[in-house]
UniProtKB/TrEMBL annotation:
This is C-terminal binding protein. CDD domains: CtBP_dh (cd05299). Transmembrane segments: none annotated. Belongs to the D-isomer specific 2-hydroxyacid dehydrogenase family. Keywords: NAD, Oxidoreductase.
Length: 327
């Protein structure tokens, strides 16, 4: 009997070995492709039933070229590199890993928030430049700060709960979720207008792309801060650069950018009022293990449930004949 094929389209920065082992133990033939481009996937995985992706684009062209494909498993909470509509049209399931690094990403956002409010990155640069004077930075007393949270999924809720005891007020917007205890629900524009620090925890969709645009950045309080550990395209990069240049936004901490890795001379990476980390908020030894194992387990579980469903359907279809025989 031919084993089902599971193909890793691209290896980013996590060791796939635990996932490969789990898949092989479950009866899959596992392939690791060369570069994860659409052409590479079509050429090397035309017979694949499962794709396990890092950042590889799974386009409609790819889906149409893989007639046996049944599931696409991401190695992240996001699915924005997958043409979900095309998958649905071809009966392909899309599975993500929503909880593997909740603690890590929420902690990263919290660390960024505190470092901005106390001016740590800018003060460090001042000292290294030979200036022993912190009076030029606008430093904040935490008990007088309002933190705004956009998005109350697992990470947004964890971040809001973690920052709440440290600051005066936490306000949040999410049209689909209620806030955790001690956090006030507001409209999107009310949160933007109230926040000393605005932290983004939303998925990237056509509706949320450039959600923080020139107008919304302008509506934030003068001297406020932006933290983004979600998706770079939630923010209009040019508008943010302008707001930083003018001083309306004091500083921004970004774990994600619109273009990753950044283009040469990216103005936000080079800006003296930004802190940029390389899309690393999710990383720890524990999360690295969980992302890989849970991604592979999603594939194994999908095919096990599919096999059980087919077995149950076959049994159900046969049952009237057995009943007629016994009656």
């Amino acid at each position: 009997m031919t084993r089902p094929v599971a193909a890793y389209t691209d290896i980013v920065d996590l060791d796939p070995a635990p996932g490969v082992a789990l898949l092989e133990q479950s009866g899959f033939e596992v392939r690791i492709l060369d570069d994860g481009s659409p052409a590479d996937i079509i050429a090397q995985a035309a017979d694949a039933q499962a794709l396990l992706i890092g950042y590889a684009p799974v386009t409609a062209q790819v889906i149409e070229a893989l007639p046996r494909l049944r599931v696409v498993a991401t190695q992240s909470a996001g699915v924005d590199t997958v043409d979900v509509a095309a998958c649905a049209a071809h009966g392909v399931e899309v599975m993500n890993v929503p909880g593997a690094a909740t603690e890590e990403v929420a902690s990263h956002a919290l660390a960024m928030t505190l470092s901005l409010l106390r001016g740590l990155p800018m003060l460090d640069r001042e000292v290294r430049a030979g200036r022993w004077d912190g009076s030029r930075e606008r430093l904040h007393r935490l008990s007088e700060v309002t933190v705004g949270v956009l998005g109350l999924g697992r990470i947004g809720r964890a971040y809001a709960s973690a920052v709440r005891p440290l600051v005066d007020r936490v306000v949040a917007y999410d049209p689909l979720a209620s806030p955790p205890p001690g956090v006030e629900a507001m409209s999107l524009d009310e949160v933007v207008a109230a926040a000393t620090v605005l932290s983004l925890h939303l998925p990237l969709t056509e509706k949320t792309r450039h959600l923080l645009d020139r107008d919304r950045l302008g509506a934030m309080p003068a001297g406020s801060f932006v933290v983004n550990v979600a998706r770079g395209a939630l923010i209009d990069s040019e508008a943010l650069r302008e707001a930083l240049d003018s001083g309306h936004i004091t500083a921004a901490a970004l774990d994600v950018l619109e273009h990753e890795p950044p283009r040469p001379n990216d103005p936000l990476v080079a800006h003296p009022r930004t802190v940029v980390t390389p899309h690393a908020a999710y990383l720890s030894p524990a999360s690295a293990r969980d992302y890989v194992v849970l991604q592979a387990r999603n594939v194994v579980t999908f095919f096990a449930e599919r096999a059980n469903h087919e077995h149950d359907t076959a049994s159900f279809s046969a049952s009237p004949t057995r009943q007629e025989t016994s009656s």
